[in-house]
Write a structure and sequence with these properties.
Structural class: alpha/beta
Largest sheet: 8 strands, parallel, barrel
Strand content: 15-25%
Distance between the termini: 46 Å
Radius of gyration: 18 Å
Bound molecules: 3-hydroxy-3-methylglutaryl-coenzyme A, magnesium ion
Strand order of the largest sheet: 1-2-3-4-5-8-9-10
Number of strands: 12
Order of helices and strands: EHHEHEHEHHEEEHEHEHEEEHH
Helix content: 25-40%
Number of helices: 11
Shape: globular
Length: 308
């Protein structure tokens, strides 16, 4: 039997947060419903961040409330886990108000780059980690799992290359908080097989990739069409959990850069879940994902983000 790899689709969160317009709530809910039919192991639904910072996801509570009408997500039918992004205690308080039948996990996020941390969360790395303490405690109290993202694990849009040891150091700080999962984000898709592998070897020293106590997920953006290389390198090193986004939507609005000519370079999209699943299958591993159902979700994702 081929070994199984876990797939999370983050398109309703990472995908839609980077769209120039706000997608109607009903369209987001339909995307989530189509993803629930694909067999992905987890769907990242939305964010409880400041609506001033990310207006695209200001309807987080309404999105989750609407899931009550989605048949494949009904508590008796549901096979995938559901998660939301939470930056601080305030976001956690909002997340805890939703129906717990539709929430299994909260995802906190920090970075291996100080400049990116400031731009994305108005806080130093250490300050973000302090903010997570009450979030992790509340998650424990309410039976929720905690995923912890580290952004800029290969490079930062503002600082350039990031040394693998810096990533390992932040991973250690997060493990000391007692998180259930680490998620390593190549936020601007700067990595290739070698730099991803170097970074993973450094993380492996503090969080064993192969059947360690804390699962390590890889979250790749696909700027230079090298993300599939990174997936293959990670599989070789023992990573068995990956994030993708249908139709390759995605990107952090706070990773956008101004070019010398004054134009803004938007943050790049995630590896598409379609390419991710194909790459994993071609490497000889299994997933629970049905590629045809994934194509339907990707077609809808493309439809809702195109200019109206
Ligand atoms: P701040 O402005 O420093 O917050 O933002 P504050 O604590 O000073 O509060 C200011 C106001 O915001 C207050 O309201 C708070 O109540 C409110 P006021 O008194 O002015 O009316 N506030 C909130 N409102 C709703 N929800 C909240 C919340 N917190 C405070 N949770 C903060 C700090 C972290 C909130 C802000 O910087 C923020 O929301 N940042 C999020 C940015 C973001 O979502 N980025 C994209 C996600 S990360 C990503 O994409 C990377 C990833 O994909 C991995 C990878 O690719 O690398 C995960
Ligand atoms: Mg991302």
């Amino acid at each position: 039997m081929p070994e199984r790899v876990r797939i999370t689709d983050v398109s309703p969160r990472d995908g839609l947060q980077n769209e120039p317009g706000v997608i109607p709530t009903a369209d987001k809910v339909r995307l989530i419903a189509l993803l629930a039919d694909t067999g992905v192991d987890e769907i990242e639904l939305t964010s409880f961040v400041s609506p001033k910072w990310v207006p695209q996801l200001a309807d987080a509570t309404a999105v989750i409330a609407a899931l009550a009408g989605v048949e494949p997500l009904a508590p008796d039918n549901r096979r995938c886990q559901l998660s939301v992004l939470v930056p601080n205690e305030k976001g956690m308080a909002e997340a805890l108000k939703v129906d717990h039948d539709y929430l299994d996990k909260v995802s906190v996020f920090t970075a291996a780059s100080e400049t990116f941390s400031q731009r994305n969360t108005n806080a130093t790395i250490d300050q973000t980690i302090e903010r997570f303490r009450p979030v992790v405690a509340a998650a424990r109290e309410h039976g929720l799992l905690v995923r912890a993202y580290i952004s800029c694990v290969v490079a930062c849009p503002f600082e350039g290359p990031i040394a693998p040891d810096r990533v390992a150091r932040v991973a250690e700080q997060l493990l000391a908080l007692g998180v259930d999962e680490l998620d390593l984000g190549d936020t601007i898709g700067a990595g290739d097989a070698r730099t991803i592998a170097d970074m993973l070897r450094a993380v492996d020293r503090v969080a064993p990739l192969r059947a360690g106590p804390v699962p390590v997920t890889l979250h790749l953006h696909d700027t230079f069409a090298r993300a599939a290389e990174g997936v293959r390198a990670a599989l070789d090193l023992g990573v068995r959990s990956f994030d993708g986004s249908v139709a390759g939507l995605g990107g952090c609005p706070y990773a956008a850069r101004k070019l010398p000519d004054g134009q803004t370079l938007r943050a790049p999209g995630n590896i598409s879940t379609e390419l991710l699943v194909r790459t994993v299958h071609e490497a000889g591993y299994a997933t629970n994902v049905l590629p045809d159902a994934l194509e339907l979700a990707a077609a809808w994702a493309r439809q809702i983000v195109k200019p109206r």
